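CO-FOLDING WORKSHEET

Operator: S.A.
Ligand of interest: zinc ion
Run index: 314
Mode: holo prediction, single chain
Checklist:
[x] sequence pasted
[x] SMILES validated
[ ] output reviewed
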Amino acid sequence: MTYATAVSGIYGDVLHECVSCGGEKIKFWRQKNFQYTESVNTTAFSIYRCESCGTGFLNRPPARQWLQSIYQYSGQALTEAITLEAVLAQETAFPNCRLDADRMSHQAHQLNSSDNDQALDIGSGFGFYTQALRKLGYNTVSINPGKYENDVFKSLNGDEPLAVMFENYEPAGQFGVVMMSQVLEHLLEPDHAIGKVSGLLAPGGVLACAVPNYDSFLVKLLGTKDNACLWIPEHVNYFTEQGLTALVEKNGFRVVKVKQITRIPFNAVSKRLRLKGRPAGVVDGMVKFLQIPFAGLMHCFGLGIYINLYAVKN
Ligand SMILES: [Zn+2]
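OUTPUT RECEIVED:
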């Protein structure tokens, strides 16, 4: 394949309205380059921003086929297979996915007034959300396209997710809980996806979603150098609380709870300062301790790194 054909396959159609609220006042914000493999030259994407709800999105977005070819192995930048043991070791060193899975599953379960004990885990990743939902008594359906993640899922839960993208999933029956953790930012046409989720939930059922916050202090400080939210081209949408709320409310939901999450790896600072041994241990301990008041302050101003939103189907 020549570079020219590779590039023509990278972009999708131009967008004329906001992917969250449907507003037509959208404006170019910044450009961000990326280099997916060493063999492909650096390619630029333009980020647009909605003047009504503040949501950002790639415009033109990546082409659907090209994006799917990335996700067939992993939605989280894995370039090779990983074992469950390695994932659990990471979780022990820096508790992250497991904490989020337990918290969000409990919260969704508490808010679910539908009497329906079927749960759908969209973008099931390593399988921690499915595991948490099963512990709460739910029968689960998990879908996830990434092979590397699905192998870990199987080691953790014993079965395998359906290896499809959500847009190709053909459901049978309704659900009481739908979990979408770190998914919406990856989807072209998030409005279609939420419309489909709305049709799958029983009245009183709960949609729980987690997305990176486009209003986070990291984006404000780092601009397009931020990769938590502005991770291109895997993340195609950048949500604000206002935008995410507009997106679910126009699809038959009522937002009942929003929470921000900020978690900094304990060793982020010592690594940056190249510390080792005892000095590294002291700095790691300080980061662990100080991030609690720091996160609280950021959340007061709506600047946290992630948004968790819970919405009930009308
Ligand atoms: Zn908007």
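REVIEW:
Residues 259 and 308 are 5 Å apart (CA to CA).
Confidence is low (pLDDT under 50) at residues 1-5.
[x] output reviewed
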